[in-house]
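G.,

No rush on this.
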Amino acid sequence: VRVSDVVLDGQARAAFQVDTTSGTGATQLSLPRVHMVTNAAAAIAVAGVVGVDLEAALVALSTAAVSGMRMEMLTSASGATIVNDAYNANPTSMIAALDALAAMDADRRIAVLGRMAEIDDVEAAHREVAAHALDRDLELVAVGTSDYGMEPFDDPVAAIGRLGPRDVVLVKASRSAGLERVVAQLAGP
């Protein structure tokens, strides 16, 4: 499987061309993050091995979903996009999510980040993620930990302030941080 012509749309979803031994086609993923292209290529390879038609595999990829709270796209009452990725977090997944946020077409790109649990060098890992966010000109709102090198906000929704229809907020942390409550407040009625 060879992938080419990868282009991200305004919500960081990849469209790309695929060449395989059984044919050529194109698709656009419904999930944000450019690294999903590699996952899609692996799925296409497996589909080919088990006899699934390439076109059927490409259609399936265009509507594929992941479990809840994993880059789940929601729309707030103000029209802002809320990206709920509060199911799990480690430095690699944080950086991938921040890259996806940075690639999104928006007026404001805000990363609401909570604690990453079960990692070795806690402070260094959090500081690396914070530096990555700031290097990409993302607004960083820390919740529940000062390990990002900044004072955490008790009320991240108030810290963010008013959201407009061209704003995107990523909410990401390890499951133990319980940041789905922040997602509920941001996406609420």
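When you get to it, here's the other one too:
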Amino acid sequence: MSTTLISAFLALVVYLLALLWLGTQSLGGQTNSADSYFLADRRLRAGVLFFTLIATNFSAFFFLGFAGAGYRIGIAYYPMMAFGTGLAALSFGSLGCRVRRLSADHGLITPSELIGHLLPGEGLRLLVLAVMVLFTLPYLALQPLGAGYLLESLTGGAVPFEVGAVLLTVVIVLYVVGGGMRAVARTDVLQGILMFSLMLMAFAAVAKGVGGVELANRTLFVQRPELFSPAGLGHFFTPRMLASYLLLWPLCLPMFPQMLMRFFAAGDDRSLKQSMVLYPVVAGVLFICPVLIGMWGHLAFPDLLGRASDQIMPLMLSQYSPQWLTGIVMVGALAAFMSTLDSQLLALSSMLTRDIYKRYWRPQASLAEQVRVGQLVVIALAVAGLAIALRPPEAILSLATHAFSGLALLFPMLVGAVYGLRWSVVGAMLSVIAGEAVLLGFAMGVIPQAFQGGCLPLIPALVVACTVLGVDQLIARWSSSGLRA
């Protein structure tokens, strides 16, 4: 067995055992209340809150996808992601604080309960629930899919894809069912530290292997100067496309149910504001690492095409770093997969338990019963996600691709309501439905691509959604003026 495989196995075993240990440590503070299980008693303070926000949002795409994008697009990918993430973090201190207070004052646990409190109406509650589940479940299903393939690659095929996907899902279910949000947050601290430290180790090793950052960039600039173009290879980032991406992240990130629930779980406003400051700083430092590694990939592997470039991170590590480091760094990518999956499981479980089971099936369900049902729902969701991951239909892959845009379309309606704009229930529903219909029209080819105007499909869909809300406000003002007259 090679040094890489030995180090990978050892790192994997230690990592999984550490997750289970952290999960068991969360059992002692657990009470039979929905707040305790789903929101860790609303006591997440600055350090833990910051790490759980980071770990929840940084999936394995941070390790593998960023490097692949650096290879395909060039340095232009970095400012797009860094600035977009920085803009998104503003929501932690503004929207997050307001949402936290609303949630704590009125005992709200799920995003559907939040919108139901702000704009009472069963149809709107169910619509928000449906959109969040529809665009989160496929993304959830892809996590064991990616983790299984990564584990298979990590162990040189010793652990087959199916076995790896099942193993990692079982570990996640054990600590999520046992400890709820408290266990998820504690494991996120470990996973966040792993992601940070291992990415920096990978960058240092590869940079040394290519002769240092300055020499590698000078050599690459001579060979492929277009990699340093502000528009990227093939002029990928036109001004309109760049603006679209910079708008996408601030709109979609706070609309992920697992992110909203972290606002609910925050211990105080100060913790959210500290996370708001630290989040873009850490992202700005870390994001450059995989992008540069991907760009330097042209020096050693100049002929990768398409999605083959997503393997540039392990290829560069195997080329320029010690064998033992390659396996350990890929465990960091595995941690990124798992920290996203556990958060999605808990978020969807809380929504299905509170917004479906308790509200429509068992309104008299006790807090202890809600926790038990939530635990069963976590298991059911994990099994469903695993089943989809083992045989993913094309429709699931397509939904996952559009997940960010689909959730971003909730932003104008939900955030407007949080800040006091009282849409009519019909107007709010039509806004979401119309926006999603436009997005679906572009995805199916019913609406010609020319109507995108050189932007992401989200932009025209967002224009339609906001127009509906604007008309709704005008009608409300005309109606109130008529009543006064």
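The radius of gyration is 23 Å. The mean pLDDT is 87.

Enjoy the weekend,
O.
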